[in-house]
């Protein structure tokens, strides 16, 4: 399998030299044990390692300026110089506004390596523009895909996946952006911010660029299938569930994806439901939940001691409910025992719902809540089920006779 091979020592050197925006002399690594402005910074360990190895230089005043911005030209140059791969072409003249610019050769090389798509910049490259996190995600994922068919397939698999970032829910992420964010998150090339956002339009900092490039060196040497998080995102994108990737359950010969556009009418005639997604989180150790979707749905406020224990998985079920009965209440929803595959519990708190911006089953005034979704409009929301390891096959028959189920893999 063809891979992107990056020289980590060269990356460290390039990070410190090509990202400098001042022309005055810089401190040599041996003259300073660390930079004066990175104490307590999240990227301090990576920067210190580079300094100790003698490859990192900063500004003449002993600072690194970790929060300084990075331009498109600077990041393109880093990618181009760090990669040992040979581009298929490095034809000049891709961008008229780069003619004679110091980065012209490096940008053309980055284009040849597949990092940059010329069509993304119809009005010119504008090399001095600060690069955004969305651009970085797209450049790196594109480079991985250009070097390895499996990463290219990962981009195709994640067009419609659920992204564990708040922008996915509000205001939404386009299908043209989603795959690049998915590959970046799934390989841990990039991560979200504490507020749950990815920061699509956020300007990337020098510290972020440094850490991301070092991580790219590691990711480029591993197959796409070795990343569990990326496997989850790919499975959700193609099957509407991450069941096979992270749980001991399987849908067997049935498929959530095949059932997604089908309806299930409650036997009590109170509502019609459609299934959207069935996403697992491994919270058997509630202090250390596993799965790329864990931060989206689960934190300490959600722990239920009698449920979150060894042998029990959480499944977060996204459905669209179309009330038929007026008024429609939670009691109507729970009273139909044949709908067990679709129905679940409310989330314990509103902490994560409010943080990320998705809907859950309402706590307060549920009849008033559902009254807003009568006349066929429907409402999409998430709920949680607790599924025990060893639980026997569970399923239901859709309105058109399709039997949807899941079961332990060993059955």
Which properties best describe this structure?
411 residues, alpha+beta, four-stranded antiparallel beta sheet, three-stranded antiparallel beta sheet, 16 helices, 32% helix
Explain this structure:
By secondary structure, the chain is of the alpha+beta class. It contains 16 helices and 7 strands. The chain has a 4-stranded antiparallel β-sheet with strand order 2-3-4-5. Strands 1-7-6 form a 3-stranded antiparallel β-sheet, with no helix packed on it. Strand 2 and strand 3 form a beta hairpin. The longest helix is centred in the middle third of the chain and has 15 residues, at 133-147.
Helix vs. strand class: alpha+beta
Report Rg. 25 Å
Q: Are there runs of 5+ residues with pLDDT below 50, and where? A: 1-32
Instruction: State the end-to-end CA separation.
Output: 35 Å
Taken as a percent bin, the fraction of beta residues is 5-15%
> Taking strands numbered 1, 2, ... along the chain, how are they ordered across the largest sheet?
2-3-4-5
Work out the helix count.
16
What's the order of the H and E elements?
A: HHHHHHHHHHHEHEEHEHHHEEE
- Major β-sheet annotation: 4 strands, antiparallel
Q: Mean pLDDT across all residues, rounded?
A: 87
Helix content: 25-40%
SS elements, strand count: 7
The shape, in one word, is elongated
């Amino acid at each position: 399998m063809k891979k992107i091979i990056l020289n980590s020592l060269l990356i460290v050197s390039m990070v410190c030299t090509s990202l400098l925006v001042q022309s005055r002399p810089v401190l040599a690594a041996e003259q300073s044990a660390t930079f004066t402005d990175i104490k307590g910074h999240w990227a301090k360990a990576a920067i210190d390692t580079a300094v100790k190895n003698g490859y990192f230089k900063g500004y003449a005043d002993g600072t690194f300026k970790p929060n300084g911005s990075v331009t498109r030209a600077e990041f393109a140059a880093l990618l181009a110089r760090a990669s040992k791969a040979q581009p298929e072409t490095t034809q000049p003249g891709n961008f008229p506004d780069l003619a004679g610019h110091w980065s012209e050769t490096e940008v053309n090389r980055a284009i040849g390596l597949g990092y940059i798509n010329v069509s993304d910049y119809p009005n010119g490259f504008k090399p001095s523009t600060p690069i955004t996190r969305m651009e970085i995600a797209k450049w790196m994922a594109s480079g991985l895909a250009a070097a390895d068919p499996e990463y290219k397939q990962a981009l195709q698999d994640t067009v419609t996946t659920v992204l564990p970032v708040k922008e996915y829910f509000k205001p939404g992420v386009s299908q043209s952006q989603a795959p690049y964010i998915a590959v970046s998150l799934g390989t841990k090339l990039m991560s979200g911010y504490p507020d749950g956002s990815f920061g699509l339009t956020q300007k990337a900092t020098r510290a972020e660029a440094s850490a991301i490039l070092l991580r790219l060196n590691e990711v480029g040497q591993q197959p796409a299938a070795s990343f569990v998080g990326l496997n989850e995102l790919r499975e959700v994108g193609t099957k509407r569930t991450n069941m096979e990737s992270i749980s001991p359950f399987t849908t067997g010969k049935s498929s959530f994806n095949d059932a997604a556009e089908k309806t299930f009418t409650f036997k009590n005639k109170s509502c019609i439901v459609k299934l959207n997604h069935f996403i697992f989180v491994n919270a058997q150790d509630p202090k250390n939940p596993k799965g790329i979707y864990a931060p989206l749905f689960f934190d300490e406020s959600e722990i239920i001691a009698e449920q979150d224990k060894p042998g029990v998985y959480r499944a977060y079920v996204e459905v669209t409910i179309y009330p038929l009965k007026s008024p429609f209440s939670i009691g109507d929803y729970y009273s139909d025992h044949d709908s067990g595959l679709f129905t679940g519990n409310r989330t314990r708190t509103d902490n994560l719902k409010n943080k990320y911006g998705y809907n859950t089953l309402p706590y307060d005034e549920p009849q008033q809540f559902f009254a807003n979704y009568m006349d066929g409009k429907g409402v999409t929301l998430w709920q949680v089920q607790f599924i025990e390891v060893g639980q026997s096959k569970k399923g239901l028959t859709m309105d058109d006779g399709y039997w949807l189920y899941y079961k332990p893999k060993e059955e």
